[in-house]
Amino acid sequence: MLRKIRVLVPLLLLAGCAGTPPDEEAPPQDDGLLSSTALVRELPLEEGDVVPVARFSELPRDAVGAERWQPYTLRPGSPRTRYHAVEVDGIVCMCADAKEGQSALQRLIRVDPQRHPVLEWSWRVPRPAAAPAASTKKPSPRARLMLAFHGDPAKLDFEQRIHLRMAKAVTGAAFPYASLIYVWQDGAPPESILRSPYSDRVRLIALPSGEGHYDRWQAFKRDVRKDYVRAFGEEPGNIVGVAIYTDIDNGGQPGLAYYGDITFRRAP
């Protein structure tokens, strides 16, 4: 059942693009408005000091996908990004090769960012083979790490609830309470918070990109709880999904990125 739940936001929401109750209490009722409600009921809460979300470095080379990770097609019928394990600089990682692709790779997992606020991962973005074609469209992020969150649906205002119901009617899928996305976004100042023009429930945080950052591994350590509060102005609920996503650029240029292991940790 869990494999059929579409937890991330669809392509239209990514264009350009008080917390959860205690564990012993039932999540608030939302009549199927949020996909994250079912997930917090069914997924066990991760424990321990370290939560290994992705161990891509342990995959055999040429492996397609990874255990517990599933493809997520953002637009039905669109070509998929090819996710497969490769070795780069002596490190086995997940390659996202989007010659025409528009799909993500996701894992449904329940993590409490109050207990495990430290998120660690790495990515490597190659220099494009050719200069991007002139386009009036904003360039697509070259790499994305996406987090889906649950929350109290009672906090959603009337307009937000109507928007979610309309989106569900159009796509046939419910969405999470909120999504926070770390991005390599050309032209965006590092640490800037970008809003989706299509949904107030999606925020992007720009990380260092551009010249000086191509063709080398970048390692990140983020306090997800603090980032969420800065982006949304409230405490986060449980994380219910993690995804990586590279797609073809808005200007038609193929996308390519490499992703290293992904881990949550308790605060020091």
Describe the model:
With 268 residues, this protein is of the alpha+beta class. It contains 4 helices and 14 strands. The strands form 2 sheets. Strands 1, 3, 4, 6, 11, 13 and 14 form a 7-stranded antiparallel β-sheet that branches. It has a 7-stranded mixed β-sheet with strand order 2-5-12-7-8-10-9. The protein starts with 10 loop residues before the first helix and ends with a strand. The model is unreliable at 1-5 and 10-28 (pLDDT under 50).
The chain-level structural class is alpha+beta
Low-confidence stretches: 1-5, 10-28
Note the run of SSEs as H and E: HHEEEEEEEHEEEEHEEE
N-end to C-end Cα span = 36 Å
Shape: globular
Largest beta-sheet details:
7 strands, antiparallel
C-alpha Rg (nearest Å)? 18 Å
Residue fraction in strands: 25-35%
The proportion of residues forming helix, as a percent range, comes to 10-25%
- Mean pLDDT value: 86
**With helices defined by DSSP (H or I, 4 residues minimum), what is the helix count?**
4
Count of DSSP strands: 14
Brief account:
With 268 residues, the protein is an alpha+beta fold. 13% of the residues lie in helices and 32% in strands.
Question: Keywords, please?
Answer:
4 helices; seven-stranded mixed β-sheet; 268 residues; alpha+beta
